[in-house]
Amino acid sequence: MVESGKSTTFARMNSKLIKLDAPYNVIYAGGKVGRHIATLMVWNDDEEMAGGITDAASYPVIDEGEEFPAGTLIDYAELHDCRVICPYSEKEGCPATNLFWVAKMIEYDFQQLEPVGAEYILERMKLLGCQIAMPTERDKETGEEVYQIDFDVTIYVMKLSGPVGNDNEGVFRVTSNRHSGFYFEAEGTPEEIQRELRYQRSVYLGAFNDEINRISFHTSDLFKDNWVEELNQRRDII
C-alpha cells in the first residue's frame, strides 16, 4: 500500500510456545495456582521500531493438578506479574518453601483486584505436593530447637470513615505483619472485621492442623484492645 508517496508497512503478530522441562515451579498466576509448564511469547515485527519488535509479552501456561487438565493459558496475567509460590527443591525432591514466604504470597493476593483467598491458595498448594517448612524456636526449658506451634500476629488498624472520637463505629481496615507467620486483612465495621479475621484464622488452623496450636492477635493501637481481647477469647471451629 502506498500513502502520500510512501509505502506503508504493517506490524506482523508472532507467537512462540516455550515448553519448560520438569521439575516445575508452582506459581501464582492471575489468581490461579499451578505448575509452570510453559510460557507463551507474543510479539509484533515492526520495521519502524528500534530492534524491529514491539508489543512483546509473555504469558504462563500452567498445570493446576488434580481434576484440571494441564495446559491452562493465563492470558490475562503477564509473566512478570506472576509469583513463584513454591520453587522445586532438589533437597526435598518436591516443590518446597517456608511459612513466611507463603504469608508474603497471600499478602500479594490481597493486593489484587479480585483476591482468591488463603483457603484456595493453601488447598491448591497441598494438592500440588508443596512442602511448607514451619519456623523453629528454642524451648525455654530445654534450650532445644523445636517447631513453633503458637503464633502471635500483630495487626494494624486504620479508620476509613465514621464519627470522630468513636472507635467502635465506622468503617475500618485491618492488616497484619506477615513476618508473624500468617497474613490477615479485612475491611468493614468492627463486627464484620472480627467475623472475617476469625474466618481467616480458621482457614489457617485447618490447613496447618497438625503443625500449630494457636494463633492469637495483638496490636499497638491500644484503643482497639477490646477487639483483640474478643478475638483471642473466641475459639474458631475448624
Query: Helical segment tally?
Result: 4
State which percent range the strand residues make up.
35-45%
Average pLDDT, rounded to a whole number, is 87
The number of E-state strands comes to: 17
Report the radius of gyration as a whole number of Å. 23 Å
Structural class from helices and strands?
Answer: alpha+beta
Task: Give the helices and strands, then pairings.
Elements: E1 2-3, E2 6-7, E3 12-19, E4 26-29, E5 32-45, E6 53-63, E7 72-73, E8 83-86, E9 88-89, E10 94-98, H1 99-110, H2 118-127, E11 131-133, E12 136-138, E13 145-147, E14 150-161, E15 171-176, E16 185-188, H3 190-207, E17 214-218, H4 225-233
Helix pairs in contact: 2-3
Describe the overall structure.
With 238 residues, the chain is of the alpha+beta class. Helix content is 21%, strand content 38%. Strands 3, 4, 5, 6, 7 and 8 form a 6-stranded antiparallel β-sheet that branches. A 4-stranded mixed β-sheet has the order 16-15-14-17, covered by helices on one side. Strand 12 (136-138) and strand 13 form a beta hairpin. The protein starts with a strand and ends in a 5-residue tail after the last helix. The model is unreliable at 1-7 (pLDDT under 50).
Structure in a nutshell:
By secondary structure, this protein is α+β, with helices and mostly antiparallel strands. Helices cover 21% and strands 38% of the residues. The protein starts with a strand and ends in a 5-residue tail after the last helix.
Which tags fit this structure?
alpha+beta, 21% helix, 17 strands, six-stranded antiparallel β-sheet, single chain, four-stranded mixed β-sheet, disordered N terminus, 238 residues
